Structure formats: C-alpha cells, structure tokens
Amino acid sequence: MNDEKYKKLQEIVSKYDKAVISFSGGVDSTLVAKITYDILHDNAIAITIDSNMISEDEIEDARNMAKEIGIRHRIVKENFLLYGDVIENSNQRCYFCKRHFVRILKRIAMSENADVIFDGTNADDMKEYRPGLKAIREGDIVSPLAEVGLTKDEIRELSKKLGLSNYAKYSNTCLATRIPYGRIITKEKLKRIEIAERILKNLKIRYIRVRDYDDTAIIEAFKKDFSIIMENSDYITNEFNKLDFTYVTYKNGFKY
Predict the structure, then answer these.
(1) Which of 45, 82, 182, 239 is deepest in the core (most CB within 10 A)?
(2) Does residue 155 contact residue 125 with C-beta atoms inside 8 Å?
(3) Pairing of strands 19-22, 44-50
(4) Are residues 106 and 17 in the same domain?
(5) CA torsion angle for 111, 113, 115, 116 (degrees, to 10)?
(6) CA distances from 234 to 180, 238, 239 (A)
(7) What number of other Cβ atoms are within 10 A of residue 109's Cβ?
(8) pLDDT band for position 253 (50/70/90)?
(9) Do the beta carbons of residue 86 and residue 186 sit within 8 Å?
(10) Over the stretch 61-80, which tens digit does the pLDDT of each residue have?
(11) Cα–Cα nearest to 220, from 172, 166, 151, 152
(12) pLDDT tens-digit map of 11-46
C-alpha cells in the first residue's frame, strides 16, 4: 500500500464536514466512498444516478458495494434520453452527459448541506481523451484520487489492502459508449445492448462489451474467452438475430 498517498487522501477528505460522492460501484468511486465514510461516517452519502444508460447489473453492483462499505446510498433516477445534447451522440456526448450528472449532484449536495462533491477520477484518466473531465472541472468537483496521483493499479492495490471485494473489477462504461458517435442513442438500442451483453455473461464471460453498429454487433472480449464464444457461436448468433442484429463479429481487446 502506498502509505503516503493514502495519508494524502485522508487529509483531503478531512478538510470537509459533509460529502456527496458520485458513486458507480466501480473500483475508483468505491475507494473514494470507503475512505470518505471511514472519516465522515454518516456525513458521507453515495449517489448513483440511474440515467437509463447504465445496465441493471451495474446499478445492482453499486447497491451491493454501498452495503459492503456501510455508507448511506441513494439511487436517483433521471432519464438522460430526454436530453437532446446527449442522444445526438456527438464526440462531445460525454461532456454533455457529465454536465447533467454534475447538475444533479449539485442539487443533491445543496439539499444535503454538503460542502463538497467527490468523484472517482484517477491519475490515469487525466492522461486520456475524456470530454467529461471538462464538466468535472467546470462543476468544481473534487477528484481525490487524481489529486494525489493514484493510478489504476495503485487503486486496485489499496482497495485490496482495505478489504474491498471489487478491487479487481474491470473498468466499465455506460451503454451509450457502445454506440458510435453520430448515431442517435435510443432506448431500444441501449436495451438490446444490455440484453446482448447479458447473454454473453450468462456463458460465464465476465469481461465483455457489445458494440452496436445498427445491423452489426461487434463483440469485444479477452482472447482467453474466445474459445467460449466460438463454442457457442451458433447460439450467440441466433440470440443476437432475435435482437435484430444481422451480423455478429468479434474483436480481441478489452480495457481492464
């Protein structure tokens, strides 16, 4: 465990009296929630926004991790499909989406009399193209992991030492990221992506994404799982055809 960075994290959290945490149930936001709860106790509240773009499995993971930590947890339903700047799906979609997230979090923070909003942005995120980071900065959201320079690997290590069960969970993104820029996001597309990914998860493939290219589904998986996919290719194709995918292709690759 990087004791110096861990201490700095605690120092950042300790500066505040009451905190709202943007909480997905992933490795990063779980670590932030854990440290915040350990210091602020009932003055820490984790907020998961159910935007219609997050799978039911991810919502359930967030619920379970909040229970594991013991932190107060609210799931806030908000239909992001009502926002034209999101469903138009430009290359700035993540910025617009995150801006709506920030607006909702600020509203909750005000109602809770919280003096800070934390999120799980880490040091590695700062090196990538992430339009949503602009909205985070504009909204004065505090990103403790990034501030102390914690990388993803260090976050996993620290999470494991703190006993968090999801320390090895793969990085995930919202279902909208499975739809290429420029193609309209619809409820129907999001639902069939979720169903398609669940079909594959039921085959015991843990790390999976299905890209939606209208009539074509592109399955992304680790190379080690390709044998399972090939053994079940007829079944997968038939099930995907029921979801109105005409073609099913495969891609070796997944960001852990």
Answers:
(1) 45
(2) no
(3) parallel
(4) yes
(5) -40
(6) 26, 6, 9
(7) 19
(8) low
(9) no
(10) 999 999 999 999 999 999 99
(11) 172
(12) 999 999 999 999 999 999 999 999 999 999 999 999
74 — phi, psi (to 5°)? -125, 135
pLDDT band at 256 (very low <50, low <70, confident <90, very high): very low
Length of the chain: 256
Indicate the burial class of 213 (C-beta count within 10 angstroms; 0-12, 13-18, 19 or more). middle
Backbone phi and psi for residue 3, each to the nearest 5 degrees, phi listed first: -65, -35
Residue 150 shares a structural domain with residue 195: no
Rounded CA separation 208/253 (Å): 9
Instruction: Name the nearest CA neighbour of 16 among 142, 150, 159, 155.
Output: 142
Q: What is the pLDDT of residues 37-51, one digit of tens each?
A: 999 999 999 999 999
CATH code of residue 239: 3.30.70.2210
pLDDT at site 242: 98
Are both 157 and 217 inside the same structural domain? no
CATH number, domain of 107, equals 3.40.50.620
Report if residue 170 sits inside a domain.
no
Cα torsion angle, 80, 83, 86, 92, sign: negative
